[in-house]
Amino acid sequence: MLMPPSVREWLPGDHLAFFVLDTVAELDLAEFFAAYRADGRGGSVYDPAMMLAVLLYAYCTGERSSRRVERRLVEDVAYRVVAANQQPDHATIARFRARHQEAIAGLFGQVLGLCVKAGLVDAGVVAIDGTKIAANASFFANREGKALAKELTAMAEHSQAGQMDPGDLVDAAREVAKAVLAEAAAVDEAEDAEHGDARGDELPVEWAGGRDRRARIRAALDELESQKSRDYESRMAERAKKEAGLGRKLTGPKPKEDAARRSKPRRANTTDPHSRIIAQASKGVMQGYNAQTAATTAQIVVAAEVTATTNDQPHFVPMATAVSENLTDAGHNDGVGAFVADAGYWTAANGTTGVGAEVLIATKKPSWRKADKPDDDKLAVLAKVNRGELSQRKAGEILGVSYTWVRDMTKRYFGNDGQRITRSAEPEPAEWIPVIEQVARGEMSKRAARDELTVSDTRINAMLAHVRGEATDPTVARKTMDTKLADPGNAELYKQRASSIEPVFGNIKHNLRFRRFARRSLPAVHSEWRLICTVHNLLKLQQATPA
Fold first, then answer.
1. Where is the Transposase InsH N-terminal domain (predicted)?
2. What is the reported pLDDT for 513?
3. 127 bridge partner residues
């Protein structure tokens, strides 16, 4: 009597499915098993190792929908091999992914350790960059705080039926019951037609579907309040730091907790309150997250984080720190040779910070004198002001501008000897440092230094802070970095930036078809981004491992 054929015989020995199974067998899955009872009570569950192998193989093949994975477990031989011919449904797959999100994120370090053991990690050059990934939320679900509060108030009013008379209460209850039953029937019918018997638990419970809209609105309002609180606290902390450095109280109005710096009201998304409206250069905006990544020249991802801010500048030091920690935990003790990043990460602080390795960041060239030079007619009026033939206020009335503009333009374009050649660039450190040193010694006033250097008061203060050792001046830091980048050896290192990090994003977005998060909330998308980066490293490991 012939035995039924094994599905494993239908795949070649070097197939990706077997590599995934072998890799899962080498991983430490204690954190997965710890989530289940060990006393034999409760319902039966699928083997966590098998479920993890299915999830990893699905992401390796570009499948993230739990329903499509369920279909593949029936139709695709490789999926059946990975699942040992078992067929968990989409709800089980989605619950597994949500229940073990922290353990799944932790797999990144283990797979990185396998890459280190295989000799794939050379940290001589590590490139840091970010890419925008769409959230599982609509841009049109953003609401201002007033609109959210109004909708929440309306919901609360509908729930205050206890304050009504008994007779009215019975009638109202009947009407509400009819409306609720009708709405529930309509919702159930629509969901059954679209999804079948269940939707799949892919979201945090408090944000799932429309049935908990009030909870999601509260979450959005809390997010708005936390943003306001963080802004106020950071501004007060910055002010306190400056006062401590100067040894005196700053003048001017203090920040207020209820004051908004932005001209437009803050908005939060009712579907995923953690997501943000992110600009995409010439491509408009998107509702999404900023996925930060660090990779070696062999395109091995050594750090993966997710933030909800568009600006890359605040994330350079945290990413560099995460790289060092991840490599140490993975058993790579040689350290990092150089961190390279594009101009989006440039700040004077990032360029001069100590991260245990060489730092090479492309600098941003500041625009100088954005305002156009006054035309000849205006210059003629300014010349009269310079010669004392016309007052600043009278000239302002003639030109239709403020007298302060007349004053500043006169000082910029005219001197004691008449019209002068104006600057086309900011003064070099060799020019302004001796002048500012005189200011620091009390030999020259700030106003005189401002007029001599033709810069703003704010710029004079920044120069003075540099001379006093309170902060590094941006122009000095920029010049230092430009000098470093001009060195032939460093230039060769920086040339490897694009070929190190850009192929990683290309593989993830194009080959693995990962352009939108399937889950919602910052912890969930952080876990998912680490999962996709783990899969990227896993595929690199498979290509480097002999069959």
1. 8-99
2. 92
3. 295, 340
Domain segments of the chain as ranges: 7-122, 141-269, 372-414, 429-471
Sign of the CA dihedral with 270 first, then 275, 279, and 284 last: negative
Q: Which tokens in the block code for residue 377?
A: 């007619």
CA distance 296 to 299: 5
What integer pLDDT is reported at residue 458 of this predicted model? Answer: 83
Element (H or E) spanning 277, and its range?
strand 276-279
Alpha-carbon distance 23 to 53, whole Å?
A: 9
* 194 membership: H or E segment, kind and range: helix 166-195
Q: Exposed/middle/buried for 273, CB within 10 Å: 0-12, 13-18, 19+?
A: buried
On whether the CB atoms of residues 449 and 436 are closer than 8 A, the answer is: yes
- Taking every pair of Cα atoms in the chain, the longest distance, rounded to a whole number of angstroms, is 116
- The three-class DSSP label of residue 292 is strand
Q: Which two tokens stand for residue 487?
A: 């060195």
Q: CA-CA distance, 79 to 490, in Å (whole number)?
A: 47
Asked which of 102-106, 167-171, 392-396, 432-436 is least confident by mean pLDDT, the reply is: 167-171
Collapsed DSSP state (helix, strand, coil) of residue 418: strand
Average pLDDT over residues 12-25: 93
pLDDT of 448-504, one tens digit each? 888 888 787 888 888 888 888 888 888 888 888 999 999 999 999 999 999 999 999
The DSSP code sequence of 147-186 is HHHHHHHHHHHHT-GGGS-HHHHHHHHHHHHHHHHHHHHH
DSSP 80-134: HHHTTT----HHHHHHHHHHTHHHHHHHHHHHHHHHHHTT---TTEEEEEEEEEE
The stretch 136-147 carries a mean pLDDT of 81
Task: State the Rg of the chain over Cα.
Answer: 31
Q: By mean pLDDT, which of 29-38, 237-246, 372-381, 419-428 is the weakest?
A: 419-428
Note the pLDDT of residue 260: 46
| Cβ-based burial of 170 (10 A; exposed 0-12, middle 13-18, buried ≥19) | exposed
Which tokens sit at 183?
Answer: 């709405």
Check residue 388 and give left, alpha or beta (phi > 0: left; psi -120 to 50: alpha).
Answer: left
Contact 432, 444 (CB under 8 A): no
CA dist., res. 293 & res. 319, Å (int): 8
Closest to 134 measured CA to CA, from 528, 504, 500 = 528
- The string over 521-535, giving b where at least 16 C-beta atoms fall within 10 Å of a residue's C-beta and e elsewhere, is beebbbbbbbbbbbb
Give dist(CA 135, CA 286) in Å, integer.
8
- Cβ 432 vs Cβ 453: under 8 Å: yes
Among 265, 280, 288, 360, smallest CA distance to 320 is for 360
Rounded mean pLDDT of the chain? Answer: 82
Rounded alpha-carbon distances, angstroms, from residue 488 to 124, 340, 479, 485: 16, 15, 16, 8
